[in-house]
Amino acid sequence: MQGRIEGGGLVLAYISRIWACRYFWLALVKIDLKARYRRSIIGIGWSLIRPLVMTLILCVVFVRLFHRTDVWTYAPYLLAGLTFWDYVSTAMRQGCQCFFQGESYIRQHPTPIAIFPLRIALAETFHFLIAMSVLIGLAWYSQGGFANVPALLTLIPTIVLLFVLVWSVAMFSGACNVYFQDTQHLFDVAFQAWFYATPIVYDAADLGPGRLQWVIVHCNPLVPLLQLMREPILHGRIPTLETYASAILVVCVMAGAASALCVRLQRRLIFHL
Predict the structure, then answer these.
(1) Per-residue pLDDT for 212 more than 80?
(2) Helix H segments across the chain?
(3) Are the CB atoms for 88 and 108 separated by under 8 Å?
(4) How far apart are CA 222 and CA 165, in angstroms?
(5) What is the dihedral of CA 194, 197, 198, 201, to 10 degrees?
(6) How far apart, in Å, do the first and last CA atoms of the chain sit?
(7) Using the 8-state DSSP alphabet, how is residue 258 labeled?
(8) Quick check: 10 and 17 in contact, CB under 8 A?
(9) In which region does residue 208 sit, left (phi positive, over 0), alpha (psi from -120 to 50) or beta (all else)?
(10) Residue 99 and residue 42: Cα distance in Å, rounded?
(11) What is residue 239's DSSP assignment?
(12) Distance between CA 15 and CA 10 in Å, rounded?
């Protein structure tokens, strides 16, 4: 019992250290956002244009390929999947470099290393929220309004869960890349395969009943989180308790493992940079 209390105290102390240097990591996020759009004419508008253009291109291709006639139903479905996937995969890709980007700060001061994947998660969440606004606007237009507006409030806990997930992903990819610098290339290949194993551009129901559909729906840890996004926006439904339970379990496992890795590497990471 005493050990648990001490462990809880250490966790709270670590979180308080992160909060104490909030102005530092918020400044890093601001620098990252400015650097990304420096000398760009459109600037942050690219966060709006990119998902729409990708959706338009893929809609043209897949509507013809699969002979779909429900374009205005498929477009927001596709945009929801692409927005979700871009959030997670970009956090992985950027996370691979998070500790190398922060190397000079880590060497100068014993900063909590959790703030460097946090820096990535915050920057990507900013772009994700912009893309989400585009998605909600497209869904509203295609459906002629929302039949169940209160269901959209469930997006708030969903965004929190996704934020914790992408922090965990950035933490894992960053730590792995420090020890093995081909990690980003390996993860890129793995995520490309994972993209097609996730119902991003297709509906799992289109696969028909069978083992493949069951594996994709029940064995892919990202599917419950994707459903939390799609259900309220596309169907006006509050996600089921089963979906929430699965999503929370996935996020808790990822966050717990990432936190344990963070604690383990706090004093060791500097020797491998």
Answers:
(1) no
(2) 2-20, 22-36, 46-65, 71-95, 98-101, 103-108, 115-143, 155-179, 183-196, 211-218, 223-230, 241-265
(3) no
(4) 10
(5) 110
(6) 37
(7) H
(8) no
(9) left
(10) 30
(11) P
(12) 9
- Cα–chain center distance at 270: 27
Instruction: Report pTM.
Output: 0.90
Pull the structure tokens for residue 273. Answer: 């940079």
Specify whether the backbone of 233 is left (phi greater than 0), alpha (psi in -120 to 50) or beta: alpha
Q: How many CA atoms lie within 13 A of 262 on its CB side?
A: 23
Secondary structure class of 238 (helix, strand, coil): coil
| 79 token code pair | 């945009």
Matching residue, tokens 């029940």: 218
In the chain, the amino acid numbered 139 is A
> Would you call 84 exposed, middle or buried from its count of C-beta atoms within 10 A (0-12, 13-18, 19+)?
buried
Q: What is the DSSP letter of 240?
A: P
Percent of the chain with pLDDT over 70: 95
Instruction: Dump pLDDT digits (tens) for 40-99.
Output: 767 677 777 777 888 888 888 877 777 777 788 888 999 999 999 999 999 999 999 999
